[in-house]
Every structure is written in C-alpha cells, then in structure tokens.
UniProtKB/TrEMBL annotation:
Protein name as it appears in the record: 3-dehydroquinate dehydratase
GO molecular function: 3-dehydroquinate dehydratase activity
Site entry: Transition state stabilizer: R18
Organism annotation: Ilyobacter polytropus (strain ATCC 51220 / DSM 2926 / LMG 16218 / CuHBu1)
Any GO BP: amino acid biosynthetic process
Pfam families: DHquinase_II
Pathway: Metabolic intermediate biosynthesis; chorismate biosynthesis; chorismate from D-erythrose 4-phosphate and phosphoenolpyruvate: step 3/7
Quaternary structure (record): Homododecamer.
Length: 145
C-alpha cells in the first residue's frame, strides 16, 4: 500500500470564505473528504496536514523521511520563498507533486515563482480541488507495473 502525505499550507484553513472567486466555495474539510475518497479508491494510505507555520510543515515532512512514497503539497504563500520547505523535501527525498487551486501563472507576477517546482515531479495549477485528485491519479498510474 502506497503512503501519501498531503500538506496544505498557510491560509488554506480559510478556504470556503477566502476569496471564493479565486479559490472556490469548498472548505478545506470538503477538499480533504474528496482527497480521502480518491485515496481510498486507489488503496492508498493517506495522511493530511495543514499548518500556517513553516516550521511545522518542515517538521511534518521530516517526520515522513523514509515513511512516505509521495508528498502532495500546496505550499500556498510558502511556494514563493520557503527555502526551508524546499530543503526539507530535498533532504528527505520524498517524490513531490506541487498543487495550487488557482492558476498561479495567470495571477500576480510574484505568484509565478515557485522555489519548489524545479524539485517536484510536477506542478498542477488552476484546477481547484481537482488538482489534488489529479496528483493521486498520477501516482496510481505511475506506480502500476
């Protein structure tokens, strides 16, 4: 059974009320249910974590050293500057898929820079919650022998 760690970054606990024209009306709880449902369909063991604190995210990634097959992460604002999260991913060697609810490449210039994208398997942006589902589907397909 594949072990997947899903991390939601800063301010994602406010989904559903935070700028719904950009981020949609689903709450983080709604999104987590969809993630868990798809993980169950794929027979994945899944852990979901959200934090507004960079160090807590680093600690969570490090705690999965040699204990998770993939990391699916929406670093949110940490995307643009968290070398600490980047270094934790590199140090653990966890295969990583970066997810964003909005299309960061069609927004403000500063949102287009990711310090994680170049070390990730891939980046999925602009498909709302479905980006997480796409990441799980990719993992399923890439691990079929």
């Amino acid at each position: 059974m594949l072990k997947i760690l899903v991390i939601h970054g800063v301010n994602l606990n406010f989904l559903g009320t935070r700028e719904p024209k950009i981020y949609g009306s689903l709450t983080l709880e709604d999104i987590n249910k969809k993630i868990k449902d798809r993980a169950s369909e794929h027979d994945f063991e899944i852990e979901i974590f959200q934090s507004n604190h960079e160090g807590e995210i680093v600690d969570k990634i490090q705690s999965h050293f040699q204990n998770s097959d993939y990391l699916v992460i929406n670093p949110a604002a940490f995307t643009h500057y968290s070398i600490a999260i980047r270094d934790a991913i590199l140090a653990t060697g966890i295969k990583t898929i970066e997810v964003h609810l909005s299309n960061v490449h069609s927004r403000e210039e500063f949102r287009r820079k990711s310090v994680i994208a170049d070390i990730a398997v891939g980046q999925i942006a602009g498909f709302s919650y479905y980006g997480y589902i796409m990441a799980l589907d990719y993992i399923k397909e890439s691990c079929v022998k």
